[in-house]
Amino acid sequence: MDINALFTDEGLRAFTATVRDQHVRDAQQYGQIADIVRSRLQQTPIEGDRWMSKRLRAWKVARQIKAMQKASTEAAAKAEALYATYVNEVLELPQRRATAEAKRLERKQGRQAAVGAAVAGSLNRTVTALNTPQEQPGATVPQARPAEFVTPDNPWQQWPMAAGGERPPTNTINDYFAKGEGQ
Predict the structure, then answer these.
(1) Which of 25, 8, 16, 27 is nearest to 80 (CA)?
(2) What is the pLDDT of residues 8-18, one digit of tens each?
(3) Helix (H) or strand (E) holding 93
């Protein structure tokens, strides 16, 4: 077998088809043998058997052959999976990468065009706003607080107090702590 042939599409396809067919034939033969062995052992008594011993013994032996059949069926499926994975991961990869790169460039050009259009629109609005004369009303500064709250005598009563806040705020931090003996 030429190992270099495995790295071509036709060579790997031929190899996997051969392996798959061999495993399928083996699985069929294992199934037939399991049926024959099971029925023969069910009909063959061994001295000292009880009433279900023949069937149990036949089932145990046939179960091993059925496991071989299952393994061959799975091996045939794995041969097909090998070919599909090779095609997907090796043969089609350059084409998928080229398609992805083309989409990426298209998105990038679309974003650049959108940014360019947004900048052009912003500049257009700015030029229009700067060239348009605007009539401005007289320069009046709105007051932040109405005048009735301000009293020049006591700075603590410039703002209305909440309910129960009739006493003026404390002047220093020392008012929060008791000046006591023992310190």
Answers:
(1) 16
(2) 889 999 999 99
(3) helix 93-131
